Amino acid sequence: xxxxxxxxxxxxxxxxxxxxxxxxxxxxxxxxxxxxxxxxxxxxxxxxxxxxxxxxxxxxxxxxxxxxxxxxxxxxxxxxxxxxxxxxxxxxxxxxxxxxxxxxxxxxxxxxxxxxxxxxxxxxxxxxxxxxxxxxxxxxxxxxxxxxxxxxxxxxxxxxxxxxxxxxxxxxxxxxxxxxxxxxxxxxxxxxxxxxxxxxxxxxxxxxxxxxxxxxxxxxxxxxxxxxxxxxxxxxxxxxxxxxxxxxxxxxxxxxxxxxxx
Length: 262
What we know:
By secondary structure, the chain is of the alpha/beta class. It folds into two domains: about 5-155 and about 215-255, Vaccinia Virus protein VP39 (Rossmann fold), CATH 3.40.50.150; about 155-215, N-terminal domain of TfIIb, CATH 2.20.25. About 35% of the residues lie in helices and about 35% in strands. The protein contains eight helices and eleven strands. The protein has helices spanning about 5-10, 25-40, 60-65, 75-90, 130-140, 155-160, 220-230, 240, and strands at about 50, 70-75, 95-100, 110-115, 140-150, 165-175, 175-185, 190-200, 205-215, 230-235, 250-255. The strands form two sheets. Strands 3-2-1-4-5-11-10 form a seven-stranded mixed β-sheet, with helices on both faces. Strands 6-7-8-9 form a four-stranded antiparallel β-sheet. β7 and β8 form a beta hairpin. About 35% of the residues are buried.
């Protein structure tokens, strides 16, 4: 995770919503699942939430619309600018920052009730050291008893087959077609994701290509890293239970800070 990851999301920021059939509907649907998961474990009163991998605001905007006080940060400056614009259009008051989740110490706030890392953000951390830094940084900005909620692909299952292609999705915008698909080039437990976005325009077809690297982070390793970083009460919630499109992990900050997780 670093310059390459930031460049991937900088390039994608203005087209990111096109990965969804209907981005506004996805914002509402995700908030309708993630919001109650947080509220039943922390409290229904407005929560102080940090979305530390906010992208263009898919989770942050939805949680703010539920009445929570949301701070949104991301490695990508372009994504943060897009999220600011989207929040303003919806008349939602969020605070925005450009920040690396491995070091959230520069954020002007801390003691959040919850930190969210959605849309498979943690697997951009390609080493155990970087993952430990991120989890320890998240730990430090949470209040004692606060929650981390992260969503992640089901790599326990995916590693069994190591699929090379995600089936194309076909959408239509105002009568014009749009195709989204991915190709994965595997190298041991990492893969280079190639994202292709192809759109029908008034002048023919336009195709864009974006690439980024991920690590297939399995549940056992992430649970171990969470524990060694001071988190407790780790829960794994699978899509067949939540209706969410990815597995969700929830962990609570313990009282003692153990230092940098390795």
